[in-house]
Amino acid sequence: MRETYYKPEDLKKFEDVGEFGPELAEKFFDYYGAVFEEGALSAREKALIALAVSHTVQCPYCIDAYTTDSLEKGASEEQMMEAVHVASAIRGGSSLVHGVQMMNKTKDLSM
Amino acid sequence: MIKSLKTQHHKLSDPAYQLHVLNDHSESLRNQPKFREKLEEINLYPLKPTGIEIFQMNVGYMCNMTCKHCHVDAGPDRTEVMSKETFKQCLEALQHSKADTVDLTGGAPEMNPHFRWFVEKVSALGKHIIVRSNLTILTTAPKYQALPKFFAEHGVEVTCSLPFYNKSRTDRQRGEGTYDRSVEALKKLNAIGYGTEGTGLELNLVYNPAGAFLPGGQESLEKDFKRQLKRKHGITFNNLFTITNLPISRYLNFLLESGNLEEYMDRLITSFNPAAAQGVMCRNTISVGWDGTLYDCDFNQMLEMPVEEQAPRHISEWNELKLNNREVKINQHCFGCTAGAGSSCGGATT
């Protein structure tokens, strides 16, 4: 992440969000930690899902964090790029599939 | 040929400058907690040995490779190699030592002219021998191609570098063609029984992250490596050891040049794990330099930080009791061994 409206160093302050509401923050971070533990999905698979979702929500903090996390968990560059393409396909597809609604409406309105 | 930092007369070939960079390169580094303070917080300072179990010998900085992450700054242009006289002093010490494992590293330890002679002598003492091989050396001259059989005859554990199970990431870190030659060497080792359960011939791989990030879970990476190497090449091995890159020498150079130094140090320090600190390898290891100087670990050796003055500082003065009572020398690079699951020459420590 380069210097922009988002400051790279702010990522390290994520846990400080508890300053204005510790109880909910604590519940959130406990939940967050549990979500990413090794389970039915491996920690690496979860890192790749998080990487894909980071691109969907276009969160620069998340992209930095889960690029590093994916590398640490042993994902290859090919796997990481495929995960981003999955996000891209769903994002693009979700626009395109609404074309059916446009077509339906067009047909309703047309002679 | 890629030149070592030493041959380039690079500033970072000076250990004092490396320590200066780690402590004072920027305001961010100056303000970081010191390793000593972190040990004090958990009542582990001064850091004392638990007893020497591993006698690690760096038999020379000469290597057929010039890897980008090498903490030794090893390469074909390095001429420092252990003499036969120093080897003999090591044998003398080993005869009286409680250490049951002799860990041979370099450089490429196989390139030392006395390597085979020494392995035979240590084998006769009944010590367990580990050789840290870069793999590619086993595919070069005939005398090196014959080594797998020699290792098997002496029950030598072979621990090899392989940063990743694909070509692009391995070759980026260790040089073009490394992956293919490593696969060739691993197949040769497999062919004589290395890496197969029940043969007693142990073949372990070492994973170093190929960049400014920490290693992930050793167990899950081992599963990935085993699955991928078996599927792609039919290769089997016993264990994968994940090792964190310590911020010294060529890896420090990479961190500086890529602008990752501050963030990497911050990551190491915030990942400080008290359990990993308890199990650091300097507590059960002694490191012997090519010239016989004694160090707490191979990293301290590269930073020219010998064991404390009150302890014997040369192999010719070996005194295990005094060495077991020494205080381990520390600095900011030590955070590399205490981050996350911990790191040692035998992989994660927790």
UniProtKB/TrEMBL annotation, chain A:
SUPFAM superfamilies this protein is in?
Answer: AhpD-like (SSF69118)
Give the InterPro entries listed for this entry. Answer: AhpD-like, AhpD_core, AlkhydPrxdase/COmuclacdeCOase, CMD-like
The segment(s) forming the Carboxymuconolactone decarboxylase-like domain are 22-102
Q: What positions belong to coiled-coil segments?
A: none
- Looking at the UniProt entry, the stretches that span the membrane are none
NCBIfam families assigned: ahpD_dom, perox_w_seleSAM
Per its record, how is this protein called by name? Carboxymuconolactone decarboxylase family protein
Q: What is the originating organism of this protein?
A: Fodinibius salsisoli
